[in-house]
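In response to a reviewer's request, we include the raw inputs and outputs for one of the modeled complexes. The two entities were modeled together in a single run.
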Amino acid sequence: MAATDVTLARPAGPALRRLLLRRPELGAAVVVAAAWVTLVALDAAGGRGNGAGAGGMPGMTARGPATLGGAWSAAVSGLPSWILMTVAMMGPAALLSVGYAGRTSLRWRRRRAMAEFSAGYLTVWAAFGVLALAAAASAPGVARPVTLAVVLAAAAAWQLTPVKRRFLLAAHRSVPLPPRGWRAERGALAFGLRNGLACVGSCWCLMLVMAVGPGGGLLWPAALTGVVTAERLSRRPRHATQATAVVLGFATVATLAVGNLLR
Amino acid sequence: MTDLYVRADAWDLAPNDPVITAYAGAVAAMRQKNPSDPTSWAYQAAMHGLQNGSLAIPPANQCQHASWYFLPWHRMYLYYFEQIVRAQVIANGSPATWALPYWNYDAGGDANKLPAAFRDPASALYVAQRAPGFNDGAAGLPTGPNGITSAWQAFDLPTYTGAGDFGGGQTNTPIQFFDQTQTGQLENTPHNAVHDAIGGQSGLMASPYTAARDPIFWLHHANIDRLWWLWEQQAQNSDPSDPNWGGQNFLSMGGFYDASGNPIQAGAVLTCAGVRETAAQLGYTYDKKVFPTQGPAPARRVSWPAPWPGPPRAVAGPGAPRSLVGASDGPVRLVGQTVTVPVAIDERAAASLQAPGQPAVQHRVFLDIEHIDAERNPGRVYGVYVNLPNPGQPADADLATHFAGNLSLFGIEAARRPMRDEPPHSLNVSLDITRVLDRLADAGEWTDGHQLAVTFRPTPLEAAPDRADLTATDHASLPIMIGRVSVHYA
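The model returned the following structure tokens for the whole complex.
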């Protein structure tokens, strides 16, 4: 029964303060938005004849057979663009986990916990990026639509495997975070690594599309972001992976039919 | 208005009372029906939960737990089940006024034992798969202020919505179990704890996949429904006004069936807002209006965080965001022994919740037990205590005044291995410990205001001293893992 000697109060403080208490990931959302603004700006610059390749991304342009050393150096030089792309494309889906890391940390170390989570998360994606870009750089110079169709078909098939489903489910798992000291630092970082691994396991095939350099400006990054985010936010993981497989199947056929029209 | 159906206390009815015998007769008849018939016993039970998919029943596994939908979904489920049973009762030549009885295990005396008819192996109400001791009348549910039968803690809460508040936390899509589960206090105790105690390690009641096959399930839930009915009648309480709650009809989960076995048609489906008043909206009531016995004497409110300069001014209202102010450093493992975990409240985190230039607000304090996991339900209930003196051999008076709530694992199977298309996850329990801390601070038993010790103490069943086999609490083969124990200010 309510005590009679006190009144009920709204949470104290201005609206933004209250919002940040509930949604500490808002800062990270701003970073994701900034990544998209950068992508749009780079794409516009590329469109004016700067010769940027994959989705308008400078650096991620190495294609065709290359020496092993050349492939690695191409991968490393493409890494900044890859990370920018990862922040933009995976960010919306990862915000839930970023918010969890913040919300379940002591208030004065929320930002730190979210940064540690993000560092772990992006480290996994960066490692995968180096491998993917190197593979793309050393791939035989097959016509782009064919390569793209093969990657899309592989992505569609991957969607239907039990392994993919397990990774997606793992991305839904949260872990308990210790509150203070080195355990807290390690906990947030490990959660980031773990969540990043689950996301790479779930989405690696989709991001391979970006490594191939599909052309078409921001069409592919935007479409794939939508697919990844919808899949992650869906409360029905099996339904979501199957729906994504169908979408990718259509994309495969369309790519073969339309050829390099989008370029 | 036609006469209301009246649900009666099963312990007021003799084993040969027509209400009991008619129920037994109907259960026997429903068990004979084809499992694909919606009015069969198997079908009705599967609507709550069904682990293997051998019965191709489309609307299986609909039960709503760990959210604000728990109470209204089960009210609807019982309402339609009662109509189906009543039709069978009438077909069997028994009274048409039949209503589902309830089991008020908190009524004192022998009420914490299974009603006699459910223990009679010759009755259709008997099932063998229950925790040892219940079917021979030797074991009773733990009673008292730190037991599992009383809803006194839930009745201390005037707010319906929220994890650890009366009815459970807000979730906008119906689903069986959620990551970050938001169990309400009435669902936690007595609901979950009684499921665990009756089910034990392998009984039907221990898992949502099998619970509704035990005829006592329905009387247990009628009691939970009765407690909600009582709470709704207290002036300061109200059900959610949010349309996400009020408009929810659970059709997306599969829907219910009427007494003839036909699906409830779209125009006639119930919504949560349509089941708030049992008499006016559903045509039934309960036989008596007896509220749960109060817990330990309420303390003078000590303003929070203590010590507080001057008289209390305001306390955080419903829906105030909760912020972490302290947590255990690591996980906790429970195998049937008493375990105490230190949790320090971080001064800097607590102080940061005070908005600059704003009047100070008294916080509500929540104890969260997070990431609770086990391979399957060990069928054990733990009492959770705050700063319990001498945890190894505590005094009864201390157990009553330091009690924060119960921890039980009901639902872990469905959380870990959901039958529907949803992510597997662990469980969380949230307990409002504001009053406990008020009481301790008021009694001068908690003066530093920062160091908390959280004790998990297994709660044995009640049994005669010569039945130590029934009061054993160990479960070494099925450990409970707790990821973190944390304290939050709202």
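As requested, we also summarize the result in words. Chain B has a mean pLDDT of 91. Residues 5-286 of chain B form a domain with the di-copper center containing domain from catechol oxidase fold (CATH 1.10.1280.10).
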